[in-house]
Every structure is written in structure tokens, then in C-alpha cells.
UniProtKB/TrEMBL annotation:
Gene3D superfamilies recorded: 3.30.450.380, P-loop containing nucleotide triphosphate hydrolases
CDD domains given in the database record: VirB11-like_ATPase (cd01130)
UniProt-listed Pfam families: T2SSE
InterPro entries membership: P-loop_NTPase (IPR027417), T2SS/T4SS_dom (IPR001482), T4SS_GSP_E_ATPase (IPR050921)
Bacterial type II secretion system protein E domain boundaries: 87-348
Recorded family membership: Belongs to the GSP E family.
GO molecular function: ATP hydrolysis activity
Protein name in the entry: Flp pilus assembly CpaF family ATPase
Amino acid sequence: MIDHALVKRFRQEVGDRLAHQRRLDAANGLAPMTGEDERQFARALISRVLEEHARNEIGLGRTPPTIEEEEGLAAGIHAALFGVGRLQPLLDDTEIENIDINGCDRVFVSYADGREEIHDPVAESDDELIELIQILAAYSGLSSRPFDTANPQLDLRLPDGSRLSAVMDVTIRPSVSIRRARLGKVFLSDLIGNHTLTPEVGHFLQCAVAARKNIMIAGSTNAGKTTLLRALANEISPTERLITVERALELGLDQFPELHPNVVAFEQRLPNSEGQGEITMAELVRRSLRMNPSRVIVGEVLGDEIVTMLNAMTQGNDGSLSTIHANSSMEVFNRIATYALQAGERLPIEATHMLIAGAIDFVVFIEKRNEYERGGTLRRYVSSVREVTGCDGRVLSSEAFTLGPGGAVPHAPLSCLEELAAHGYHPGSW
């Protein structure tokens, strides 16, 4: 067991010494340490502080920490300085998918195999939990994000790519949900291998991306929409310039320059305490069109940016990708129409359906199911692919792939088959 009170004390001490060294370097005209140099220097400081602590304990006639206890303290201090404190062991576990925290001592962990367990507390108090989230909010993303009574909601991307959502003051105790990014560098072949996609659907999607079709990925929360989006994006040629637009950075396509050397990642900026400085998703989508994009990728559509995005798709930026929450592939069109009604343009439903028909080529629906008959295994799979074929007062579409015994299977003929065939797609060849 780690003495978290000691970790907190030593973190402050090491942090103070680190800050003092930064000031000394600046006063002597030295270049600031790189991130890796700073981590190495911090490790040396941690060793020094722990050695001083051991000598002090011996001087007081007490037993100093064992080697194992010192290693635990060192890891805890380093995680508090550069990681996410007592959350770090959970984020280091590659089998964990979700972490739900209902107050500092009510921690629920969901695993990839469907198991759910209660975990040890992640902070000594709710105030300490809020302080941890505030520290993360100050250093994650492109700009500092407040988390306090005036700003009780927070969304951000952790250093490992996981998504964190937190609220306070609108719940009895602070509540945090962390969605793990277990598959960062993921390809369609990986999703075929874990049975998220059938081989034919995987090949179809590969050809659809190559043919620059606009694809909307739909599904419920935690169904795997973002992972599928990453896999589709990784089918895009490295020669293309990609611009991603997100509420909180999470796609991380710029982290793999060997796949995407030319990426610009936009992140929505929230207003400051005086209500100034906000840059909305819709504004970022408009800005992205002026940045010479080959494709625009909108991480998640949740509001009025939908009209701007659909307009972008119809203005020559073919091959766009996005995700949206929906209960079926057919429901996506009504969901988009609802968002469009909330936009400043106040588009009537008929106009929205015309815009959808001109912008979106395919809707891919992914769902999850906990298969209790197989020991509670959580399974994710693409169950429907719907092709948009036109508009007649409403969006006309056909289900190109529907759920069969072994996954999604061909159902209706594709109207754009010739275009896809030019990129290697031939139905029934799998």
C-alpha cells in the first residue's frame, strides 16, 4: 500500500525544486529543458528526496521505507507530477475500458471482457479529486479549461488519449467518467480481426474511403464510433492534408506522422470567466475550409455545427468523416434535422433533408452488446451500412449491408457500385 499523504507531500517538494531549477536556467540564459529532460531530472529529484526521507527516518529511530515501498512512492510521485495521480495505475491497465467515479471513494471499473469491478479510492477527499481534475484541465488540450463552481462541466483528452468528462455542483458529489483509448493506432484489418467488421464490410469501407465518399458513423455511447473513425482515417493516403475539428482533442491523428504527416487539429475553445474568447465548433468548421484541406474530419456532431459541416461536404470537400449519436442508421437523418433546427440558420426539415442527401453518401451504424451467454463478453460490431440515394421531401436511402448470422452482409445493390469498383470493390468476392 502506498502512503498517499507522503506522495502528496513529496510531490509538492519535488515540484518546488523543479520550478526552482527552471528559474535558475532562465536567469542564466539557458534553454528550457525538453519534456523528456524534465522528466529525467524529476526522477533524480525524486530519488534524492526519498533518500533524504530515509535518512531522516533512521535519525528519528524509525524504520525507513523498504525498496518496494520506495519504488511505489517514486511511481506515485512521478504520476502526480506528470500523470494523473492515483488514476495512473488504472490508465496503465490495458484491459480497462471505462472508469466511472462517483465521488473520490466510489470508483467503478469496466473491463474489455465485460467485467465490472469496484476499485480503491482515487483521492483522499472530494476536494482532492476536484483539485486533480483542475490540474489536468490546466495542462491538457490546446488551452486551459476551467473547472469550478462557475464552470461545473469539463471535457478533455488525457495525455494517453483517453476522454475525461467531469461535473461538479450539479451532482451531490463530483462525478468523473473516463473512456479509455485502448486502440490508438488502429486499422480496418484490426477491426476485422476482432469481428467488429466482416471482411466484406471492411473491404467496402476501405474502397469507400479511397473513392472519397462522405461517411457518417453512428451509434450509442461507447459503441466504438471513434475507434472506427480512426481506422477509416488511417486508410487515407499520407499525401492528403487532414483537418480535424473536435470539442476536446481525442482523435490524435497528428500523433502518427508516418500515417498522416500533414494534419491540423482544431479544438473548440470555451469562453473565459468573463464570457469572452469562445470559438465554436461551427466557426472552426468554417475556418477549416480556408486551410486548404483535402478532407475535413469532425470528431463528433452534437449541435449546430451540423449545418456548416454538411455545407462543407457539398462544396467539394469530398471524403469527409464524422460521428453522431443515434439508435439506428435510419434515425441519423432525423437526428441531423433536429440539430439543424437548433442552428442559427433555422433550416426547415425539408431543406435539411435536401442538404443531407447532397452531402452524406453512407451512414455506418455500429452497436455494442453484452453477450451474457458467452460469459458477459462485450461485443462491438457494425450492423448496418445505409447508402443515401436521393431526396423526395425526405432523405431516400437503402440498406446496403444489414445484420446477418455472422455480421453485416450485403442486402441492397449499391447505386455507386461503378465508382467503388474503380477502387477495387466487387460484391460477393469475400
